[in-house]
Amino acid sequence: MARDDLLIIGAGPAGLSLSMAYDGSSRILERAGEVGGLCRSVSFGGAVFDLGGHSFHSPHPEVMDLVEDLMAGHWSGQRRDARVHFQGELIDYPFQNSIDQIADPIVAADCRRGAPTSTAAADAATNLEDWIQGRFGEGVARHFMLPYNRKLWARDLRRVSCEWVSERIAGAEVQAVKTPNGAVVPKRQPLRSTSEIGYPAEGGFGGIFKTMTSRCGPISFDQDVTSIDLNARSVRTAGGATWNWGRLVSTMPLPLLLSAIDGCPASLLAAADRLETVSMKIVMLCVAGPVADAPQRVYVASPDMPAHKIAFNHTSSPNLRSRPVHAIMAEVAYSPDKPAPADDELIATSVDWLADAGLISSTAAVVEARVVDLVHGYPVYTHERPAIVAAARAWLEPRGVHTIGRFGAWAYVNSDACIHEGLKLAARLKAPWGAEV
Ligand SMILES: Cc1cc2nc3c(=O)[nH]c(=O)nc-3n(C[C@H](O)[C@H](O)[C@H](O)COP(=O)(O)OP(=O)(O)OC[C@H]3O[C@@H](n4cnc5c(N)ncnc54)[C@H](O)[C@@H]3O)c2cc1C
I want to staple 30 with a disulfide (CB 3.0 to 4.6 A). Which of 11, 74, 79, 130 is the partner? Predict the structure, then answer.
């Protein structure tokens, strides 16, 4: 087998964008039969689903320009419409900015009382639970932020660090950061009701990445990488094929990458095993119209609904809205600390809740349902995570191996950040072997 200068494991956003921007011969090995990774779309019953609610936005102008250029004439932009379902009512997202809309005056007063006047307590917090209490006060924490985040992260929030909150939680935003070499890098802003988002004008979110393949190097599908020999610079796949490489970039989950490498030190393997993930069941409901003019996303802290987030995918573009059937995705987080109910039960409880909440006309409106299981859904920012990822990279990179992407870098990043990382690594790898900048 001829050697590829650059071999990439995984045809998700990170692997595809790297292949697209790399100035040399490259090949992607992909385990699945199609591109897109977690950004794939699924169709059944005439409706279009993503693997959880997906929409596109980016603080990086070059990434926005790239995607708009790729999707030229096939792009649909709109303002995000997200709500919180709270005590039987829909109020605007995010909860902490919508206390005036809470119907129960006692609860509203509770949320206002004790609201911190400075960020000192939040700034001093070292875990998510303390950060939430410190930033929003006891009322907002107790009524929504703690139950919601416990549902999403599926573990004790004191085990979760708060290094990611500025990009994700309204009230913590930072506009830009300065790198050690003085460059100013724009930071992702937490989504609000005023955020502008984009989606393919036809079909699902995965269309962005299918389109990207026309600009990529060759992709070999059904190639599940199972072992890596650093001395021979080769990988083997489950089917027995061998592929040689000059440099290897992996976007597969970091613990799986390390355990595939012959001779990986036991200390690195043991550390990587301590990386934690939130797994996700995506309950996909095909609903025969008419569906109420639903918001795009509804966030739910109540334990009556297994999902913390519901995405009404038919609202993603005019084309999807015009279909006679509509796609609803309910995202249910699970972990060893919070096991998921059986799929049948998840479907039944979700459908009953949606009908009770008036978000579908009746349970009979659901004409087909499926559940997709994402073992790797959200990487968890435990206190140990940065040191584990840094140690793995410090061992891999001198051996010609890079690990990037959501589970390659174990980073809570969206597809736009994965594209950005792919583009940045392509530029870095332009330098001759051994002289990477
Ligand atoms: C519920 C949910 C909602 C989200 N919402 C949004 C959103 O609104 N907007 C947004 O932009 N992003 C969103 N994201 C994030 C986005 O899906 C990911 O950030 C992005 O897909 C990560 O890209 P990646 O290339 O790093 O990894 P992946 O998409 O995970 O791709 C990795 C690829 O590697 C392949 N692979 C794995 N192991 C092997 C192996 N051993 N051999 C060969 N191939 C292998 C996989 O099959 C996969 O195709 C969401 C994610 C989730 C889970």
Answer: 11
Specify the ligand 1 atom closest to the Cα of 405.
26
CB 154 within 8 A of CB 335: yes
- Write out the two tokens for 183: 């460059």
DSSP-derived 3-state class of residue 61: helix
Residue 270: its H or E element: helix 266-273
Q: How far is the CA of 376 from the centre of ligand 1 (A)?
A: 9
412 lines ligand 1 (CB under 6 A): no
Give yes or no for residue 396 CB within 6 A of ligand 1.
no
pLDDT in tens, 315-373: 999 999 999 999 999 999 999 999 999 999 999 999 999 999 999 999 999 999 999 99
Ligand 1 atom nearest the C-alpha of 13 is 25
So what's the pLDDT on residue 291? 61
**Exposed e or buried b per residue across 262-283, where buried means at least 16 C-beta atoms within 10 angstroms of its C-beta:** eebeeebeebbeebbbbbbbbb
Q: Which CATH homologous superfamily contains domain 3-39+60-73+202-275+382-429?
A: FAD/NAD(P)-binding domain (3.50.50.60)
Determine whether the shortest distance from the Cβ of 413 to ligand 1 is under 6 A: yes
CA 278–ligand 1 middle distance (angstroms): 14
Q: Comparing 63-77, 82-96, 287-301, 353-367, which segment has the lowest mean pLDDT?
A: 287-301
Which parts of 66-126 are beta strand (E)? 75-79, 82-86, 89-92
CB atoms within 10 A of CB 431: 10
Does the CB atom of residue 414 touch ligand 1 within 6 A? Answer: yes
Is residue 204 in contact with ligand 1, taking CB distance under 6 Å?
Answer: no
CA of 13 to the centre of ligand 1 (A): 7
This model's pTM is above 0.90: yes
200 C-alpha vs ligand 1 centroid, how far in Å? 18
